[in-house]
Amino acid sequence: MDVLPFNIIEKMIQCFGKCFFYKDTMESFLISAGTPPQQARKYKDEYKFVWAKKLLNELSESSEGIVTQHKILRAFYDLRDLPDKALAGKERNTGLDELRSLKELILELKLIEGKRKEDSNVRKRLLEERSKIIAQRSERLYELKDIFYKGITSLNRQEAGYDLEYILMSLFSLSEIEYKKSYKTSTQQIDGSFSFEGFDYLIEAKWRKDQPNEGEIGSFQRKVDTKLKSTRGIFVSVNGFRNEVIEAFNNNTNILLIDGIDLIHLLEGRIELKELLSMKIKYAAQYGKCYCPDSIYLK
To answer: What sequence ranges are listed for the domain Restriction endonuclease type IV Mrr (predicted)?
Structure first.
């Protein structure tokens, strides 16, 4: 089977970026089209355009991959609407335009001869894969949510602290972000760490009745400052932060704050962890604020 032309690959990348809203939908589309699941989600932590580009380039390196490219192209051709109903207005029109443009190019290059009857099996497999992914995620979030709400009333605060570490580790696993659980250096205790969008992050997590003071967050910031300059910190406090403490760490900071409200939104499925992190990072970069309230990222 022939390698797909460059302009077709570029059009497919544009369709991936503009025809999908949720990454889970894009993943299930790839799998239903015949992409091996592990390969389909390999670059899921990247932006959709980058994810598509890296995947299609990788597929072009083998004969089996080229066959998969053609299957994905066929799946795009068989679409009669955008896979994500969440796209609306201008974004929906842009997505439809990209899909239409890809189909016209397919016919122009005679990659698929004429219009064929829509293969309902593609849509069926897509819906089945998407439903399976959503169901598994919902079940896991329900389990974590139960642990979280029990921890709110627990008298054993040490156990609640361990539960918080477990919840955080599980949320990162659900979002397919590699997470290193708590560890010690010769002089420091680190509650967790991960990499995201080119930066390394250290985590400090507290679940106490009182809110952390400026000295505690400052001590954590000094831990972060002993690492590479590209290292940032995330301080998690289930019971939130006092306004004066937040103000003390605004402007030119490398610390982001996450509170219990953020965790509830994650556990209730109102926002995904990668979206939350991206919004908090963007807000800090644009406004110099270490804490991004839910009124901003849930707009």
So the answer is: 160-267
